[in-house]
Amino acid sequence: MDAPSEPQTPLFDRRMLEALVCPQTHATLIYDAEAQELISKTAGLAYPIRNGIPIMLVSEARKIDA
């Protein structure tokens, strides 16, 4: 009998990167798969990806060091 598997988090579709930009600076974003975030180096913000959906709100973004 197989052990119960952990629920899988939906993966972010990298093709979305072509359409998404930072809402603050309109700069391109970098996908950080390990942290499940979209990084805007220009704005110094990391936008979370929750359940495979990027949360593109500046108020939800985490400030990062440039």
Would you give an account of this structure?
- InterPro entries: Trm112-like.
- The chain is mostly beta strands.
- It is 0% helix and 26% strand.
- It contains no helices and five strands.
- Strands 1, 2, 3, 4 and 5 form a five-stranded antiparallel sheet that branches.
- β2 and β3 form a beta hairpin.
- The relative contact order is 0.22.
Number of strands: 5
Helix content: under 10%
Number of domain modules: 1
Main beta sheet, described?
5 strands, antiparallel
- The percentage of residues in β strands lies in 25-35%
The average pLDDT value, as a whole number, equals: 87
Number of helices: 0
Q: What would you call the structural class?
A: mainly beta
CATH topology grouping: N-terminal domain of TfIIb
Q: End-to-end distance, in Å? A: 49 Å
Please tell me how large the radius of gyration is: 14 Å
Unreliable residue runs: none
The second-level CATH architecture is Single Sheet
Shape: globular
Level-1 CATH class name:
Mainly Beta
How are helices and strands ordered from N to C? EEEEE
Protein name: UPF0434 protein B30_03260
Family: Belongs to the UPF0434 family.
InterPro entries: Trm112-like
